[in-house]
Inverse folding.
């Protein structure tokens, strides 16, 4: 049976989200994953970006990943290509490997979402697919096979991607730059745990391995679990750590805690990382902390919708306009390099996709150079604090309808919904969801997740306590929307 991918998206429940195709694992059947991959390669071939040859493949540690990888590999073969199995490595390692060789790449991962779901992230020979590419793939017409033989489709793991990723950072940062530092590595089920270990030890750190799990743990860097907050504080005290480093399931979003076991917000870490590597143009979504503008550290700041494709598009525009030292980051902590970084005769190649390890390495280097603990880095920032959480099992259609109703109701409806939670309104921003700024400068941002049936709530205030309290007040109101 032949059909368009747009029809398959409608019928299977597997569709493009914020970053790649996502869906329930049981909906991501072998034929569905095979069809998506055929469409991707057919689209690349039609646009002159693929004429056969290798396609780099990798995956995370979800139970469904090996099966999906085999279906993807079968599609590569059926499309006349050669699957190159890079193993179970971080998404940025797969992306860097593919980009450096100008070949397509496919990462099987659901990132941070629960393991009853999974996803496929596609890379052209020139980078992560963007929204126009998604539309092009959705328009392709391919065969949906009722039965699929994936036996022996996935070849043995070819070494290289992990080694290159480790060398990327060990060769850029000065030798021994983490010597004397005791760093906890929160491994859980992240596919980045082995490469992170090699990088940290390669730069001289003493690494304490913590919290390894053989079952998948859905660590979300934007909504850190209460148990992870508790564990970080306990580990820091028990092992006298200088920092704790971790990442989400596929290793493209970082988690870094200071010497007290306090997790840094991703958008705060992004500002500090951008300063440390000498960024001049910074691109970030509207949900990121507004301390960015208040620092005065950067020549050009650009805000986008939430999602790496939008950040990448804006970075590309900035580079085309002649901007240099162009970087991007997201509130989840993922950091992107549109242009190379040069320092002391060393060069860090561009990597315009989310990466997790650069952020902790840059912050640890900054703290070491100043002779300060990691917690002191935030002292240079204005007092703006964010908090984020989400309402789980909230259908996207319900979230959108409720938010649209508030927008249509205007300031009066929004004021009524906020009630005692907020002061009169200063501004309403509908760039991505509904972002409300009150007269006191507090911010409430409501947005349906692009990856799961969740409604996200971001809040910002002058103290972390107020940002948390405001978030909880809003979540209580949002629960009534179910």
């Amino acid at each position: 049976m032949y059909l368009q991918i747009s029809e398959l998206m409608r019928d299977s429940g597997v569709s493009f989200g914020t970053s790649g195709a996502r869906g329930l694992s049981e909906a991501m059947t072998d034929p569905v994953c095979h069809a998506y991959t055929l469409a991707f390669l057919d689209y690349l071939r039609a646009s002159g970006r693929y004429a056969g040859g290798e396609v780099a493949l990798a995956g995370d540690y979800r139970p469904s990943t090996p099966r999906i990888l085999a279906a993807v590999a079968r599609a590569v073969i059926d499309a006349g290509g050669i699957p190159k199995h890079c193993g179970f490595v971080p998404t940025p390692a797969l992306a860097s490997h593919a980009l450096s060789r100008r070949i397509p790449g496919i990462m099987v991962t659901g990132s941070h979402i629960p393991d009853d779901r999974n996803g496929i992230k596609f890379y052209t020979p020139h980078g992560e697919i963007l929204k126009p590419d998604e539309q092009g793939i959705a328009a392709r017409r391919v065969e949906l096979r009722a039965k699929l033989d994936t036996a022996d489709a996935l070849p043995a793991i070819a070494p290289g991607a992990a080694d290159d990723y480790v060398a990327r950072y060990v060769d850029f940062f000065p030798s021994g730059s983490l010597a004397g530092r005791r760093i906890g590595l929160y491994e859980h089920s992240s596919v980045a745990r082995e490469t992170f270990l090699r990088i940290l030890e390669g730069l001289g750190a003493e690494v304490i391995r913590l919290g390894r799990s053989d079952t998948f743990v859905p660590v979300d860097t934007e909504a850190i679990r209460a148990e992870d907050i508790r564990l970080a504080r306990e580990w820091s005290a028990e092992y006298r750590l200088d920092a704790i480093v971790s990442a989400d399931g596929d290793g493209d979003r970082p988690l870094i805690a200071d010497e007290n076991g306090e997790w840094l917000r991703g958008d705060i870490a992004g500002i500090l990382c951008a300063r440390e590597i000498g960024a001049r143009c910074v691109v970030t979504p509207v949900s990121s902390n507004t301390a960015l503008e208040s620092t005065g550290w950067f020549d050009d700041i650009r805000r986008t919708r939430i999602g790496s494709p939008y950040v990448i598009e804006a970075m590309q525009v900035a580079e085309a306009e002649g901007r240099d030292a162009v970087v991007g980051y997201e509130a989840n902590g993922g950091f992107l390099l549109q242009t190379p970084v040069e320092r002391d005769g060393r060069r860090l190649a561009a990597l315009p996709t989310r990466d997790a390890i650069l952020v902790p390495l840059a912050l640890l280097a900054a703290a070491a150079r100043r002779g300060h603990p990691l917690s002191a880095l935030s002292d240079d920032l204005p007092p703006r604090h964010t908090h984020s959480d989400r309402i789980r099992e909230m259908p996207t259609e319900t979230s959108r309808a409720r938010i649209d109703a508030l927008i249509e109701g205007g300031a009066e409806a929004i004021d009524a919904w906020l009630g005692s939670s907020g002061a009169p309104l200063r501004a309403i921003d509908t760039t991505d969801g509904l972002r409300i700024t009150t007269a006191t400068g507090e911010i409430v941002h409501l947005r349906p997740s692009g990856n799961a049936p969740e409604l996200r709530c971001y809040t910002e205030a002058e103290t972390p306590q107020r940002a948390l309290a405001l978030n909880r007040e809003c979540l209580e109101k949002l629960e009534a929307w179910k």
In short: Residues 385-479 form a domain with the TATA-Binding Protein fold (CATH 3.30.310.50). The two ends are 38 Å apart (CA to CA). The CA atoms of residues 228 and 385 lie 20 Å apart.
